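Inverse folding, one chain.
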């Protein structure tokens, strides 16, 4: 099963949405500054706990796909069972890890 067209569609769609979002945000900020708003409201903290959660979640999904591929090749479980179970297992495990890491940082 060739997934290249599906990934290409997601990449193109994501790029278009990102460009439109950034264009709207830039115009919104420009209008706020012209009206006399304080530009310090645009300063945001870059290291948010959400970034850790999403980063670990995506790493967990990647590991789940890798392990699912290994299980699919090594056993007779079936492609769907091995991939979906490992993605769910490692995705959930990464969210649990991010919870404990975030709790320890606070």
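Residues assigned per position:
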């Amino acid at each position: 099963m060739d997934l290249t067209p599906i990934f290409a569609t997601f990449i193109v769609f994501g790029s278009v949405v990102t460009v439109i979002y950034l264009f709207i945000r830039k115009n919104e900020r420009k209008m706020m500054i012209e009206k006399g708003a304080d530009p310090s409201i645009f300063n945001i903290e870059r290291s948010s706990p959400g970034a850790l959660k999403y980063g670990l979640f995506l790493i967990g999904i990647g590991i789940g796909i890798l392990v699912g591929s290994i299980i699919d090749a090594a056993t007779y479980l079936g492609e769907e069972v091995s991939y979906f179970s490992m993605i769910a297992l490692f995705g959930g495990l990464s969210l649990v890890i991010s919870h404990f890491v975030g709790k320890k940082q606070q």
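Residues 45-106 form one domain. The radius of gyration is 20 Å.
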